[in-house]
Amino acid sequence: MTIEFDDNGKFFTDIISKTPVPVLIQTTTHRIHGNIHISQERRLKDELDLPERFIAITDAIIYLADGQILYQANFLALRRGEIIWVIPDGDIVDPSKESPK
């Protein structure tokens, strides 16, 4: 690891701090639950909009259409073009617990 300091005492390092965000991902063929890691200055949308072909997913669980687990992996490189939608776990609402309107 390299740490450099500028004249003002600010330090720079080659380590990039990222925050894992648990998400549910729908692809063209499967549903995936895992973590997308986001740089501190970015939003989830910003991370999804990056130009790289693949996005890293950690602690991935890949489900079949019927909800059965197909695979589990510590790391998954998912091609961005396969993503249909992404929901952060904290934004998932259980409709059975919603009050009627």
Structural summary, described in words:
The chain has 101 residues and is mainly beta. The chain is 5% helix and 51% strand. The chain is built from one helix and seven strands; from the N terminus they run E-E-E-E-H-E-E-E. Strands 6-5-4-3-7 form a five-stranded antiparallel sheet. The chain has a two-stranded antiparallel ribbon with strand order 1-2. The chain is elongated, with a radius of gyration of 17 Å.
Describe the protein's topology.
Layout: E1 3-5, E2 11-13, E3 18-27, E4 31-39, H1 44-48, E5 54-63, E6 69-79, E7 83-88
Antiparallel strand pairs: 1-2, 3-4, 3-7, 4-5, 5-6
Task: Give a short synopsis of this structure.
Helices cover 5% and strands 51% of the residues. By secondary structure, it is mainly beta.
